[in-house]
Amino acid sequence: MTAAPPKESSKVYDADELAALFKVSRKTIDRWTKVGRLPGVLRLSIRRTRYDREKINAWIADGCPGKPDCNGKSGHDGE
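Structure (tokenized):
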């Protein structure tokens, strides 16, 4: 039996990983997804969404266009 590869090698983020990355709540990630604020959204089903890691990382490198406070530096959960 082989072990699953570490999450870091995954080609996608899940909402919890993005919430930790941006220092916001999971609810905020869901809200940003709903309004189209995040790139690379991959809808697997109605309740299951993943985010293309390459597109998210490129978006962050570009300064998160369309999202104030890239990287969640203000520490609040609003936007």
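The radius of gyration is 13 Å. Strands lie at 12-14, 41-45, 48-52.
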